[in-house]
Design a protein that fits this description.
Blueprint (H helix, E strand, L loop, with lengths): L3 H36 L3 H29 L20
Helix pairs in contact: 1-2
Length: 91
């Protein structure tokens, strides 16, 4: 049974997940603009869009972190994420 408080935390987490996705989407769009500018040797425009992309990426990560904290109530022992060796390794 989900408590009223847990439900409120879930709603807040959902909001932050959506905000994170929105900022990641904008960051990707800005990176594409930066890439296009680089292809045309337009360093000023490329730097501008890269800076915008970076700012949105920071906001996206911030919202993702807040969402993760809001989700902690549902799995306080972090039991469903498996063993570390089961995770994809960075290459």
């Amino acid at each position: 049974m989900v408590t009223k408080k847990e439900h409120e935390l879930d709603l807040q987490a959902a909001d932050h997940h959506r905000k994170a996705a929105h900022h990641f989407e904008i960051a990707a769009h800005e990176h594409m603009k930066a890439a296009e500018a680089d292809e045309h040797d337009d360093h000023v425009t490329a730097a501008h869009h890269a800076h915008l992309a970076y700012g949105h990426q920071i906001e996206a990560v911030r919202h993702a972190e807040i969402a993760a904290v809001k989700e902690e109530h549902s799995d306080p022992d972090d039991e469903d994420h498996g063993k570390p060796e089961d995770h994809v390794a960075d290459h």
